[in-house]
Amino acid sequence: MTMKQSSPLSRLLRFALVGGIPILLAILFLWAGGWLSPQRLTAGKLVDTLQSGPGEKPGFRRNHAKGLCVIGEFDANGNASVLSKAALFAPGKTPVTGRFAIAGGNPDAPDFAVPIRSMALAFTSPSGQQWRTGMNAMPFFPLPTPEAFYEQLVASKPDPATGKPDPQKMQAFVAKYPAVKVFGAWAQKYVPSGSWAVDRYNSLNAFNFIDKNGQSHLVRWSMVPQQAWQPISESDHQNKDFLQQDLVKRLAQGPLKWDLIVTVAQAGDASNDASKLWPADRQTINAGTLMLNSTVPQEGGPCNNINYDPLILPDGIAASDDPLLNARSAAYAKSYNRRTQEEAHQAPGEHL
Questions:
Q1: Is the model more confident about 304 or about 20?
Q2: Phi and psi (nearest 5°) for 74?
Q3: The domain 66-322: what is its CATH number?
Q4: Exactly one of 64, 217, 237, 351 is catalytic; which is it?
Q5: Is residue 64 annotated as part of the catalytic site, yes or no?
């Protein structure tokens, strides 16, 4: 009788049943990490591809490497309490440790060369619960899935011979993911601002707010600036650190403020696709005011060793089914582990 050959995974699972639960858990961990399925997209593969552009920059984030720490507080007005039982939405103030950054893995990149900026915040309630959120100054994400984002990174990788992406690879990518054309159309019309302080930062991903009755409400949120918008100037193009210098100057004159605006979805609005905008007529709630009071360099600053994982959520906020959330969380963790290990091996006083 001919025996049907079993797969490596099934043989390992049978062995785990004999060897006990710890081995089974190890196998599941290895599978989740992609070791038993090399073709699968993993956090390590995604981070490797991100850092392949600028090259290794020990001690820095693999994306949004150039940034600045900020300190402040969130003053909730209680309006969002009808949607979420999270303590930070009850009237009162919550300390915030944040970070402004520009996209990309090069900590020495000129501010004017990278039009997409980010705001990351960690809210810490008196009970110790945290809400961490990373937002971007663009209205939607270019692509719907981690796999599509990874393929974009690969397709846009510069050809060593020309120093530019291969046009045929990019054309094939756009043909496979035509949704990216929508983002391209927005990017062509986008005018970068002259300050981190005047940008609107959006969650992009959807989340669920859970109210005191256990009801779930699908939402997105934005930090909307109270400071008047201004475009990037000609002089800004001559200063590689104009964003950081501008923020330091502004905060020396007084606090900077944003309104936390929560947008509530209606039936049919996408919960799992950050590349799709919700209609502009959706209900919005002003949940309170973010006030930033001071800034600190990220090297040695309080934000430097915070992993702004979007899935670190307090009771009252839960993840949606957006696949980008798990991918972001895993990639952030991988990047955090790498850079903190690199920092541990740097000589005292060595620049991060």
A1: 304
A2: -110, 125
A3: 2.40.180.10
A4: 64
A5: yes
